[in-house]
Write a structure and sequence with these properties.
Blueprint (H helix, E strand, L loop, with lengths): L2 E7 L10 E8 L3 E8 L8 H4 L4 E10 L1 E6 L7 E5 L2 E8 L5 E13 L3 E16 L4 E17 L2 E17 L4 E16 L3 E16 L4 E16 L2 E16 L5 E13 L2 E10 L2 E10 L4 E13 L9 E2 L3 E16 L6 E13 L2 E15 L2 E3 L4 E9 L3 E11 L4 E11 L2 E11 L5 E11 H8 L4 E4 L1 E11 L2 E11 L4 E5 L5 H6 L1 H10 L2 E12 L4 E12 L3 E15 H10 L3 H10 L1
Antiparallel strand pairs: 1-2, 2-5, 3-4, 4-7, 5-6, 6-8, 7-8, 8-9, 9-10, 10-11, 11-12, 12-13, 13-14, 14-15, 15-16, 16-17, 16-20, 17-18, 18-19, 19-21, 21-22, 22-23, 23-24, 23-25, 25-26, 26-27, 27-28, 28-29, 29-31, 30-33, 31-32, 32-34, 33-34, 34-35, 35-36
Length: 592
């Protein structure tokens, strides 16, 4: 290493032991030294060991001239000063996975009874891997103003105006991109244990990704205390945020605020917090073991009241479902990874909800799901009641018991509902969340043809009479289908007026069709029977046989009519939905 030096001697009376009054040493720039170091640490989980930095190669170089002067005239107080200059160092861990680059500039040091050094510090970590937590850091950099003091009692250092930025920080369960920290000051007392205080930390992050959700926004830490003892790090802090955006893989978004406390002790992170998002407040208590990459959270949602001005969509954006009235509360515990003890419960009271152009009102009941051997299930069927459902045609007074089993089957036990002045029932309606094929039977009794004509606002169809149906429903990958259902009219029959359904051109070229059209304009049937098919295309197919009489043909003789009717049910429901004002219809229903 190249250097220049000057010595001032007090005298040369004793040539074998000259007395030095002062000295000046200049370390010349562009000089490099290389060292192999091995640091002794306590504990196998010490960060120096788990990152491989306990055994490292160091390459240090002087970038700008460093001037060192010393005043040694007072044997009881030696004054040494280091001024100007800058130096850099690169530390390469033994495992090759961790690299740290340091630069100290504008160095000002004074060594005496109380020694102090001030300098500007820049740090860059191109890569770092901490194996115990499987923590990987990429392109982390920081700047700060550093001050180090030492005396007979110990050492302390202060960092000010700290700015940290990181390209990526990742563990097994999460990855954070574009992380930025702004820390006004850090003060540490290097004793046993070492204690650091951080009055404030402001953080912003582009995005934090987990399997369940992504998080972006800012997070502030207040009154943080970091304790380092025997190589283990502990932390206590408060935190808050006014801007946290949570997004699920389904693109549902929640803008929220949060506040709480967190603690890190023996690699275990615990937290107590409150999150507010729109009309919903959530109380959370959780813990996470960093060494095992596992943890859990308990949560509760105090009762929230929804309204059209305070709806679910004001809290969760992107949901096709919206709650516009009623009360909801929830709670539970969830583990990461999932465990059998996990459970979630929800209480619904007079809920009104919309789904696209459909709505339901008066939804009430309690639901609970539990994790059993990796499967979310309901321990028992849970009763639910719904005052009305309207997807184009009204269904009222719905009663059922809901169950979810290990096979991912949702079963609606003892289903019953009022529909078109009749009753629809099923002992069990089954839908597989795993898209397996399931079969159910639905019975409908006393369905009014007059009510059907009125609800569909048909301009060329009037009817009276009651019908009963047996509908074998198949659910699976193709959705809902029906094959070989049965329809039968109730005695004493009814009346059909079906007119204007055929164009004059069709009637002119088909005398038999004209005969049937004339008969259907005023037809009284004694019996009505037929089959029902509903394929995946959504085209309802009815094959009907009617026996009755028509004044237009012969009022004294039975006329048998065979009809094949086809109607696309999704198109019909969309047409009925489009013909009404959803908000107005829902408000009328809520006012009843």
């Amino acid at each position: 290493m190249a250097f220049k030096s000057k010595l001032q001697l007090s005298s040369l009376n004793n040539i074998n032991s000259p007395e030095v009054n002062s000295f000046q040493l200049e370390l010349m720039p562009n000089q490099t030294i290389q060292l192999d170091i091995s640091a002794s640490t306590s504990g196998k989980n010490s960060p120096l060991i788990t990152t491989g930095l306990h055994q490292s190669k160091i390459q240090a170089s002087i970038k700008d001239l460093i001037s060192i002067t010393g005043d040694l005239t007072n044997p009881n107080q030696r004054d040494i000063k280091v001024e100007q200059g800058s130096l850099t160092a690169t530390i390469q861990g033994s495992n090759g996975d961790s690299t740290v680059q340091l630069t100290a500039s504008d160095i000002q040091c004074h060594f005496s009874d109380i020694s102090a050094c001030n300098f500007d510090l820049k740090t860059k970590i191109p890569q770092l891997y901490e194996r115990s937590r499987e923590l990987a850091v990429t392109n982390l950099s920081s700047t700060a103003k550093a001050k180090i003091e030492s005396n007979l009692k110990g050492q302390k250092f202060t960092l000010e105006s700290i700015k940290v930025s990181g390209e990526k920080i990742a563990t097994k369960t999460l990855a954070a991109d574009r992380v930025n920290l702004d820390i006004p000051t850090v003060h540490c007392e290097v004793t046993e244990p070492t204690i650091c205080t951080l009055p404030e930390i402001s953080s912003q992050f582009g995005i934090i990704n987990t399997e369940q959700f992504s998080l972006s926004g800012d997070l502030n830490f207040l009154d943080s205390i970091v304790t380092i003892k025997n190589g283990a790090t502990a932390l206590d802090s408060e935190f808050n945020s006014n801007n946290l955006e949570i997004e699920t893989p389904e693109k549902y978004k929640v803008n929220s605020s949060a506040k709480g406390k967190l603690s890190l002790q023996q690699n275990k992170l615990t937290s107590h917090s409150q999150i507010k998002a729109g009309a919903i407040e959530i109380d959370l208590s959780g813990s996470y073991d960093l060494s095992k990459s596992s943890g859990g959270v308990e949560f509760s949602v105090p009762e929230v009241t929804f309204s059209t001005d305070r709806s679910l969509n004001d809290t969760i954006q992107g949901l096709p479902l919206n709650i516009v009235s009623g009360r909801l509360s929830a709670g539970g515990s969830v583990s990461l990874p999932s465990q059998s003890k996990d459970s979630i419960h929800v209480s619904l009271d007079d809920i009104a909800a919309t789904y696209k152009d459909s709505f339901a009102t008066g939804i009430s009941g309690d639901l609970k799901v539990e994790n059993e051997d990796g499967h979310w299930i309901t321990p028992t069927p849970y009763p639910l009641s719904i005052e009305s459902i309207n997807a184009g045609l009204p269904v009222k007074n719905v009663q059922l018991s809901l169950q979810l089993d290990k096979q991912k089957d949702i079963t609606l036990h003892n289903f019953s509902a009022d529909f078109l002045q009749g009753k629809v029932t099923s002992s069990a309606l089954i839908w597989s969340l795993a898209e397996e094929t399931r079969k159910s039977i639905v019975h409908a009794q006393g369905i009014s043809l007059e009510a059907l004509a009125q609800e569909t606002d048909s301009e060329n169809f009037e009817a009276s009479g009651l019908i009963n149906l047996e509908i074998p429903i198949v659910t699976g990958p193709e959705g809902i289908t029906v094959e070989a259902g049965h329809l039968q009219g109730e005695a004493p029959g009814g009346r059909l007026r079906y007119y204007g359904a055929f164009s004059p051109q069709m009637l002119a070229s088909n005398p038999q069709l004209k005969l049937i059209a004339n008969a259907l304009e005023d037809y009284e049937f004694q019996t009505l029977e037929g089959s029902i098919d509903y394929p995946a295309s959504g085209d309802l197919q009815l094959q009907l046989k009617l026996v009755g009489r028509s004044e237009a043909i012969d009022s004294d003789r039975d006329l048998v009519i065979n009809l094949n009717l086809e109607n696309n049910i999704p198109d019909m429901l969309r047409s009925l939905q489009a013909s009404r004002d959803l908000t107005e219809t829902l408000e009328k229903q809520l006012d009843q």
